[in-house]
Amino acid sequence: MVSHSELRKLFPSADAVCFDVDSTVMREEGTDELAKMCGIEDAVSEMTQRAMGGALTERLPLIQPSREQVQRLIAEHPGNLTHHIR
């Protein structure tokens, strides 16, 4: 974690910025949707519930999605914004 003042200095020069918006801005947990598409929803969903804070590195190796599966997920299941997000 960096302080707010450090972040204000770093942000303008960043090449990319990533935000985790699953189950916050978006109503779904994207990794769970990908696992459903790959046929292992129950195992990954259980992991998600156990470790809602940083288990992406644990869940993705279990799912092992191909690039095509990720692209298909994005095309077939565009995220739904949480009701209070405009």
TrEMBL record:
Keyword Oxidoreductase belongs to the record: no
Required cofactor names: Mg(2+)
GO biological process: amino acid biosynthetic process
Spans through the membrane: none
Gene Ontology molecular-function annotations: hydrolase activity; metal ion binding
PANTHER family, sorted: PHOSPHOSERINE PHOSPHATASE
Keyword Amino-acid biosynthesis: yes
Keywords: Amino-acid biosynthesis, Hydrolase, Magnesium, Metal-binding
Protein name, per record: Phosphoserine phosphatase
